[in-house]
Each structure stands twice: as structure tokens, then as C-alpha cells.
Amino acid sequence: MLPSSFPPAAAATASPARPIPGGYGPPLLGPLRDRLDYFWFQGPEEFFRRRAAAHGSTVFRANIPPAFPFVGGGRIDPRVVAVVDAAAFRALFDPALVDKRDVLIGPYNPGVGFTGGTRVGVYLDTEEAEHERTKAFSMELLHRGARVWAAEFHAAVDDMLNAVDDELLLKVKEKKNQSNEATVGFVAALQRCLFRFLCKALVGADTSADPFVDKNGFLILDAWLALQLTPTQKIGLLPQPLEEIFLHSFPLPSLLVSPFYNRLYRFVEEHGAEAVSIGEKEYGLSKKDAINNVLFVLGFNAFGGFSVFLPFLLADIGKPGDPTGLRQRLRQEVRQVLLASSSSAAAAGQGAGQGESSSTIGFSAVREMPLLRSTVYEVLRMRPPVPLQFGRARNDFVLRSHHDDAFAVNKGDLLCGYQPLAMRDAKVFHRPDEFVPERFLGDQGQQLLQYLYWSNGPQTSQPDTGNKQCAAKDAVVDTACMLIAHMFRRYDDFEVDGISFTKLQKRST
Ligand code: HEM
């Protein structure tokens, strides 16, 4: 079943290149129809699925919202080449083929008003000199943060769980005459914990030094993210016609959030001064650009990415009832590793007698938990937190899909890869639509990692200043493992429904 590897996404091919199927429809009406399908009548996944089926092709032309008639006064060109198979998707990772300038979230660019006037690194192409400097700077922030990352993360997660435990207890008490069950939403507590943790670990800034930022920082980031992303997302808060008119029809202004962004700017300037000066002295950035890049990596990449991904992870592992016994097996794996590491620490005379509950679950511990790691990969495969990737063809080239099809891509075409389908490609993944936590175990499982694309690159590749792969590719997986290991050190079991805990069973031994 598993192809040892696909041919390169772009190559000289035996089969002649054919025109890409699909089209953009009549001016105005075509983009409008696709926009309404995407947001309203079909939703993103059906949108891509139906068009792939209709064209009998995993590479096809379509419009991606937001689109005319409103947004950007027609300046946004919604026409893309959609790519939904594992082989063709790889073209998006090849800096020789695609230009990533200003296409982070597609043809729509919220603009530098959201980033203090700086074009931050994530919007830069690899051929722009500044990309190398800003990417190296973000990798340096991660590298420096690694020393305190695990300890700060666990401290923040403990704070979050203490708050959740208290609230759950209160709710159970209130309901004691009716039932012993209660639900506690965890998103706000999780985001507060993420914000404090990331400020310390990435920026070296302690939020307790600024009570306003400590209390409101995560809410400011939520508002800042929402204003940038809303024109491209289905929100579901308003009836759809109103959502189309008010949320998907024009760019939302940065002015609404800029006084608060400036507050975070000053916080980083004052309390993250050491990190900022590294950006200036070692990477040649101006002070303003260093701070705006720090804020983007902190707020958009890290806070935004984890805020989407960690709830998915908790929900998939915490499925009510544990029908497959996954939680029981994960708990066993986590506790075995913790016990072994505390025994060896005791034998070496470090912290003897303190037991596994007092040691930090660090990077090396979670790398010894293969089932947990494979489960984290599977959540990333099934629910990639950043589902769309974009890149503009630098030149004409031939794009190969795994159906041995070859397509003529034109210089300037905007490729739009949809990860949820590419990572459920039946040519690569057995039972592609099923959640299989053991999928990435063993030699065969390790081979599959080359098709795990959530980080804008294969899980087997490394982020580098010469590519656009997520700087935190490994840190994200390790941190996700730390969260679940933390849960099983603290609790015997937990259950999650959507974004609420419905069960937190304290550890008995
Ligand atoms: C669950 C969390 C995260 C997810 C899902 C995620 C995902 C991604 C994705 C998909 C991209 C590529 C975007 C594109 O160009 O199309 C990216 C880029 C990037 N990510 Fe992450 N990320 C996460 C966390 C982090 C963290 C913690 C950092 C901290 C340093 C980080 C730093 C970056 C940087 C600097 C880039 C830009 C790379 C470049 O311009 O070459 N990310 N991330």
C-alpha cells in the first residue's frame, strides 16, 4: 500500500502535461458562487472534495474566498490551483518552485497595520534577505527558550488545571442532589496559561510584572487574530447571510485593536528587552522589526497554533467512554517512563525519594513515549491546525499528482494546498478517514512521517532559513506530548466533550 516514495512533485514525466481541469466561472458570479459554497452551502472540506470528484482530479482550478464583489474592491484575485493529494502537495514545500511572498493565508493579506508597520518573517519569501534573518531569530528564541520550556509549560498547565478542578468541584457541589456530573469549558483557562507560558519561554518576559497584560494579554491576541482571519474563516456566530455581509465582505480594520497591540509592544520592549536586543545585535533587525516579529511569532504562530491544536488533541484523546482503551494504554506508557526516569534519577542521587510526581516531564522523557507520539501525529494528520497552504509558481512547471497525471502550471498561478485531504490520501494511508492512534508506530509508521505535512513540510524534514517549514516543528509535537503526559500524571482519567472537560478523575495512587 505504502509507496516507498512518490516521484518529485515537479518533474519531467512520461505522461504529457495536460491543462488543469476546472475553472473560475464568469467574472463576479464564479467567485461569488465558490465563496458561498465554501462558507455556506458546502463548507471547506466538501468544497474541495466535491470539486476533486467532479473533475476526477486531485489538482483543479477554483476560487478561494474571500472574493469580489466586496473585499478589497476587487484587488484580491481569488483564482487558485487547488492541490489535494499527497504527491502534488509537495510542490508547496519547494522554494525553487513557489514564492511565499504575502500569501500566508491566501490571496487576502490583512496588511502591515496588524504588525506595527513591519512585514514580518512569516510573510516573506525565501528569496528575500530579511527572511533568513527573521527565521534565524525565531529559531534562536526557541533554542534559548528550550532551557525553561518544559518547567514553565508544566507550571502553567498546573495553574490551568487547578482553576478547572476548582470550578468542576463547585459545579458538582451545586448539582449534588441531581447528579455527580458537570462540565467545565477549558479554552479561556488554556489560553491564559499558554499566553503566560509563551511570554516566559519565548520572550523571557514575566507577565506578573504587568497586571493588565497578565489579565488581558490572551484576549488582546484573540481579538487581533480574529480581525486578521475572519474574512477567510467560516465563523458560525451569525446567520450565514449576515456573516457573508458583515464578516466576509471587507477587510476588518487593524485600528480596532492597535491601541491594545501597542500595549503588548511596550510590554515586550520593556520585559523582553534581552530577546529584542538579540534580534537587533545578532540578526541585524531594527528594534521595531525585532519587537513586531517577536509579537507575531508569539501571538500568531505559537499562541494561535496551540490554541487551535491543543483543544483538538484533548478532545480526540478524551473521547467519552474511551471506546478503544487508548487512554488506559497512554496512561500506562506515561507512568512507566516517569517511573523509570525517577528510579534512575534516584540511583544517581538526584532527588532520591521524591518519586516521579515531582520530576519535570521534559523533552527526553516524552521522546520515550512512542504511542503518545504516534497519537499526537495522528491528531495532526486528521485535524491539521493550519489546513491551507499557499505558494505562487515562480515559473511554468509540470506538477505531478500520484495518479500519474501531469499538469501544466503557469508562472504566477497561486497553488492552494488543502492538508486535510492530502493527509487522508488513500494511496498513502490505510483506512485514511479513521483515527488510528498506532498509525505512526514501528518502521512502517516511521515511513509515513514523510507524508505528515502539518508544519508546511514533511515531518521528516527540518526547518531551515532556506525553507518555510514551521520553526517549531519538533517543539510543537513535544509540547503536545508533555500536555497529555501531564494529564496522566495528575489524573487517572479524563474526558472531554467539545471544548469542555466532563470528567477529571484524580490520581488514586
Ligand atoms: C500548534 C502550533 C503550531 C502550528 C500548527 C504551526 C504551524 C505552522 C505552519 C503551517 C507554518 C507555515 C505557514 C506557511 O508559510 O504557509 C508555520 C510557520 C512558522 N511557524 Fe509555526 N506553528 C505552530 C507553532 C509555532 C511556534 C510555537 C513557533 C515558535 C517559534 C512557530 C514559529 C513559526 C515560524 C517562525 C514560521 C515561519 C517560517 C518561515 O517563515 O520560514 N510556530 N507554522
Task: Tell me about this structure.
The chain is an alpha+beta fold and 509 residues long. The chain has a domain at 110-383 and 435-506: Cytochrome P450 (Cytochrome p450), CATH 1.10.630.10. It is built from 15 helices and ten strands. It has helices at residues 29-41, 44-55, 129-174, 187-203, 211-229, 240-246, 258-271, 273-281, 287-317, 326-347, 363-366, 370-382, 419-422, 442-448, 473-490, and strands at residues 59-63, 79-83, 98-99, 184-185, 388-393, 397-400, 406-409, 414-418, 491-497, 500-506. A five-stranded mixed beta sheet has the order 1-2-8-5-3. Strands 4-10-9 form a three-stranded antiparallel beta sheet. The longest helix has 46 residues, at 129-174. The chain is globular. 45% of the residues are buried. The model is unreliable at 352-357 (pLDDT under 50). Residues 100, 104, 121-122, 135, 138, 142, 297, 301-302, 305-306, 309, 385-386, 389, 454-456, 468, 470-472, 475-476 line the site of protoporphyrin IX containing FE.
